[in-house]
Amino acid sequence: MANPAAGYHYGNAPPPQSYGGYTMQQPSAPYGAPPYGMLAPSTFAPGTDPTVIACFQLADQDGSGMIDDIELQRALSSYNQSFQLRTVHMLMYTFTGINTRKIGPKEFTGLFYCLQSWRGIFDRFDRDRSGKIDAPELREALLSIGYAVSPMVLEILLTKYDKTGGSMRAIEYDNFIECCLTVKGLTERFKERDRALTGSATFTYEAFMLTVLPFLVA
C-alpha cells in the first residue's frame, strides 16, 4: 500500500517519557493477533506511586485484580471529565495489543501515566481554555508528538472526532485522546513495514485489514 500523498513524511515519535519512575511504553500488537483475548495476571511494579494503586483499587470494586471497561470508564469519568466507552476501549487496546475488555495493574499503570501526558499536551494547545482544540491547534499538537499529517488527513481527523456540534471544527479531550492514539498506532504499524522511512510500504490484504480494523472496532 503506497502512501497516497506525494512528498508526505511522517515524523519520528519522541522517545518514551518517564513519569514517576514509570517509563511509558505503548506496545504494538503483532500482525495476526486475535481480535479478543485474555491477559495474563499482573502486579504493580515495586515503587509504583500509591496514588495509582489507590485509583486501581477504587475501580476494582469486586477485588478481582482486574478492571473491566465499564469500571475503567467510571473511574476515568470521575475526575470532572467524561470518557466515551469507545475511547476507553482504544486505551485498553493500546496497552494490551489485543481487544480485551479487562486490564490488570501493569496495564493500568501505563494507561494512568499516558493520560497524564495527553492531558498536558491537550492543555498546552487549548490556549483559550475552551475545553477543545481546533484544526491549527490539533496540527500543532500532533507535530509536538512527532506526527506531521497532511491537510487532507487533518480534515478527515476533524470530521471523525469533532463531536461538539459547533460551527467551528474542534475536538474535546476524550476524542483528542482517541484521535492521537489512532494516528500514533497506525503510523507505528506503517513504519513497521517502512523501515527505510520512505513514506511507502507494501501490505498483503490480510495484513492491511489486521492493521486497520482494531482501530475501527475498538
Q: Care to describe what's here?
A:
With 218 residues, the chain is mostly helical. The protein has one domain: Recoverin, domain 1 (Orthogonal Bundle). It has helices spanning 50-59, 69-76, 85-96, 105-125, 135-144, 151-161, 173-193, 205-217; strands at residues 18-19, 22-23, 67-68, 102-103, 132-134, 170-172. A two-stranded antiparallel sheet has the order 1-2. It is globular. Mean pLDDT is 80; it is low at 1-36. Keywords: Calcium. It holds the Pfam family EF-hand_6. GO terms for molecular function: calcium ion binding.
Give a topology summary.
Blueprint: E1 18-19, E2 22-23, H1 50-59, E3 67-68, H2 69-76, H3 85-96, E4 102-103, H4 105-125, E5 132-134, H5 135-144, H6 151-161, E6 170-172, H7 173-193, H8 205-217
Antiparallel strand pairs: 1-2, 3-4, 5-6
Protein name: Probable calcium-binding protein CML49
GO molecular function, one term: calcium ion binding
InterPro entries: CML48/49/50 (IPR044590), EF-hand-dom_pair (IPR011992), EF_Hand_1_Ca_BS (IPR018247), EF_hand_dom (IPR002048)
Element order, helices and strands?
A: EEHEHHEHEHHEHH
**Portion of residues within helices:** 40-55%
Class of secondary structure makeup = mainly alpha
Q: What general form does the structure show?
A: globular
Q: CATH homologous superfamily, by name?
A: EF-hand
Q: What strand line-up does the widest sheet have?
A: 1-2
- Strand % is 5-15%
Tally the structural domains. Answer: 1
What is the overall number of helices? 8
Q: Tell me the span between the first and last alpha carbons.
A: 23 Å
Number of strands: 6
* Largest β sheet strand count, sense and barrel closure: 2 strands, antiparallel
What is the rounded Rg?
18 Å
By CATH reckoning, the class would read Mainly Alpha
